[in-house]
Amino acid sequence: MKNTIPNRQALCESLLELAKTDKDIMVLTSDSRGSAALAPFAKAYPEQFVETGIAEQNIVGIAAGLAHSGKIPFVASPACFLSMRSIEQVKVDVAYSNTNVKLIGISGGVSYGALGMSHHSLQDFAVTRAIPGLTVIVPADRHETKKMTEALVQHKGGVYVRIGRNAVEDVYESDDYEFEIGKAVRMREGNELTIIAAGETVRFALDAADLLAQQGIHVRVLNMHTIKPLDNDAVLAAARETGAIITVEEHSIFGGLGAAVAEVTAGGAPVPVRILGIPDEPAIAGKTAEIFQHYGITAENITQIAKTIVQGRVTTG
Amino acid sequence: MTEITEVTEITRLRRKAVEIRMTLLKLIHRAQTGHTGGSLSNTDILTALYYHTMKHDPQNPKWVERDRFIASKGHSVESLWAVLADLGYFPKEELETYSEFGTRLIGHPNNKVPGIEMNTGALGHGLPISVGMALAAKRDGLNYRVFCLMGDGEQAEGSVWEGAMAGAHYKLDNLVAIIDRNGLQISGSTEDVMGSEPLDRKWEAFGWDVVEIDGHDFGALIHAFDSAPQVPGKPTLVLANTIKGKGVSFAENKVEWHHHVLNDQQLEQALAELQASLKSLGAPEQEGSVHS
């Protein structure tokens, strides 16, 4: 049955549960409690909730002040604003001052597909991963969102998380698995090539792997939920053991997951890295699925690219 | 305070402020870098806070109930380094490393140094952070206060006003923001660069209780700080009218002294002027001068 629970709702459910016993957890929204699916939290724990109004610089500064006082603030604000309008506060008040603030960029990527470039967040991985000390995570489904939220409460330090708006198909059957920040999850075994994906594109990578398997091509799939710190060991192992990598992300082809992977392979195990993402242009408007289709962020296109690489290797090798 | 003890207290603070000015001038002179004008204009504010009003313990900088000080105008850090060293937050000898390669004592507040709460330096950040700290105190039922020092040029930053709105919205009467209103910024008069007047009415309109004082009058400073909040449920804005370069005749009210640094002869003259002030306050002469 198709999943109907979006990651934002999974986040709220986890926080509701965790806040029962942990009174330091706080949620801050910038007139975004509805978009963040956090209205139930605001209602259940008014003393652990702060509304800042539409003021994205202020929300991060206030969160840093709360964290300095021992709170564990979760700032839920649209990713397009949180990763741009607030970025100096993220750099100075969170990363540089080393405050324990969890920045939750909601409606990330092209979730607000039809609203245009002002509401797309396709540069957030690039910006946040260049800031020293900041951890960057993008969960793939509701189960991973739950595991991640639990890990965030335990983790000390600033984190930027990007989640999407709409329900996405599950990539895990349940939350009964090990989640560790900074550790990639190998979701399909294979040695002919590796597909590295993050967030909502993990589903496409898995579907592509299954299509390829039907054709006798066995590829590895890594769920790189943590963009920073990147799991370098998993990337290098993939490069050495499978010889080629395709990265898939809901992000600009500049500076995101693909770039992070290529930075590692270039120095440690040079292999071809094909970066699939949104090209360097204001992304076309439309529904999320239509935008993915337009730019080839689909299981079919990943399958095609993988076949070209693997077959090319056979004919030239 | 009785009248006599208040006179004694004010004299003590005035002497301390002169000493802090001497230290910060030597600091800037040795490093040949720093924000001379702004450090001199906020010295009396810092002295009133750290030596009179604030609850704090240099031996226990993370004491939960301490009052918090956030230097939002982070560039005027030399006076703060001089105060923290004098109070014993770190060894006085460390002042000699100011601005040197690898030092903790950089040109902005650095929370690797005991006594510094947060890294500041990008303007417009201090007030939102202070709102968060004051809100945490309210939610936790703690009675510490938060003091946030801003510049007047800084008032052009939009985030100042986001913080102002939130401070009033959450009725943070444990929050005291201070504007070091010296009237000058790096490229000229604040009113020529970007007019911000009427500051008092703007802050009042944002829901703050505004107290306007002479920022070099210790009687007014300690009264404003000690008595806040005068209106329960409202945050306090102390509009402290100051003189940029205060205490050094040739630097006072001169825009170029925003970050001019003293040469040997200027240091000699400035210290002589400050020694004369100390003498007039009945204090024993300070040891040494340029070479101390």
Question: How would you characterize this protein structure?
Answer:
The complex is a heterodimer of chains A (317) and B (292). Chain A has 317 residues and is of the alpha/beta class. Chain A is built from twelve helices and twelve strands. Chain A starts with 6 loop residues before the first helix and ends with a helix. The model of chain A has no long low-confidence stretch (mean pLDDT 96). Chain B has a five-stranded parallel sheet, with helices on both faces. In chain B, a hairpin with a 2-residue loop joins strand 4 and strand 5. Chain B is globular. Chains A and B meet through helix 3 and helix 5 of A and helix 4 and helix 5 of B.
Tags for this model:
heterodimer, A: Rossmann fold, Rossmann fold, 12 helices, 12 strands, globular, B: 292 residues, alpha/beta, two-stranded antiparallel ribbon, disordered C terminus, PDH/Transketolase (chain A)
Quote the average pLDDT of chain A.
96
What is the second-level CATH architecture of chain B?
Answer: 3-Layer(aba) Sandwich
Strand order of the largest sheet of chain A: 2-1-3-4-6-5-10
Largest interface: A-B, 28 and 29 residues
Total number of domains of chain B: 1
Into which percent range does the helicity of residues of chain B fall? 40-55%
From the spread of the alpha carbons, the general shape of chain B counts as globular
What would the CATH topology of the largest domain in chain A be? Rossmann fold
Architecture of the largest domain in chain A in CATH?
3-Layer(aba) Sandwich
How many strand segments of chain A? 12
CATH superfamily of chain B: Thiamin diphosphate (ThDP)-binding fold, Pyr/PP domains
Oligomer: heterodimer
Outline the secondary-structure elements.
The complex is a heterodimer of chains A (317) and B (292).
Chain A: H1 7-18, E1 25-29, H2 39-44, E2 49-51, H3 56-68, E3 72-78, H4 79-82, H5 87-96, E4 102-106, H6 124-129, E5 135-137, H7 142-154, E6 159-162, E7 185-188, E8 194-197, H8 201-214, E9 220-223, E10 226-228, H9 232-242, E11 245-252, H10 257-268, E12 273-278, H11 288-294, H12 299-316
Parallel strand pairs in A: 1-2, 1-3, 3-4, 4-6, 5-6, 8-9, 8-11, 11-12
Antiparallel strand pairs in A: 5-10, 7-9
Chain B: H1 3-31, H2 36-53, E1 68-71, H3 78-87, H4 126-140, E2 146-151, H5 158-169, E3 175-181, E4 184-185, E5 188-189, H6 190-193, H7 199-205, E6 209-214, H8 218-227, E7 236-241, H9 264-280
Parallel strand pairs in B: 1-2, 2-3, 3-7, 6-7
Antiparallel strand pairs in B: 4-5
Helix pairs in contact in B: 1-2, 1-3, 1-9, 2-3, 2-8, 4-5
